[in-house]
Amino acid sequence: MDIGSGTGYPSASLSNFSPHPFVIDGVECASMEGFLQSLKYSNPDMQKHVCTLVGKQAKFKGKKKAWYRTQTLYWQGEEINRHSERYQELLDKAFSCLATNEKFQKALLATGTATLTHSMGHNDESRTVLTTREFCSRLTKIREELKKKGVKK
User: Fold this and answer.
1) Pairing state of beta strands 78-81 and 72-75?
2) Which of 23, 62, 124, 133 has its CA 20 to 30 A from that of 82?
3) Alpha helices, DSSP H, located in the chain
4) Thinking of the domain 11-149, which architecture would CATH place it in?
């Protein structure tokens, strides 16, 4: 099942562009895209603002940030190397927080046992803050955890 904002339910609802609010480290995020784009900003206040954005508005806010030159991203004033274990831990935490959103849970469980893919995504870690592999593997893991907990569609 190809995850993307232009696809039907449930895959469109799993897009990072979807408005699924969650809170991470006390910061309110309106969507995963807002959170991901906020990582390109070193200023914590600007990060909080970007976290409030959804969809294309979030994407375009971070699009011109040339974070890839240094491979450095940020969270709450902390510099984080894109290729570090710390960064992977932050992604895990963010997706775990997203997974508390009931609409997100229902959409993810509605995928059943489908293999999750993301044809719009990229695989080069040095050019994107979230590779297709990082995205789909986390969704699959969360889906399995929700099933084990007995969360219903």
Assistant:
1) antiparallel
2) 23
3) 32-38, 44-51, 55-63, 85-98, 102-109, 132-149
4) Orthogonal Bundle (1.10)
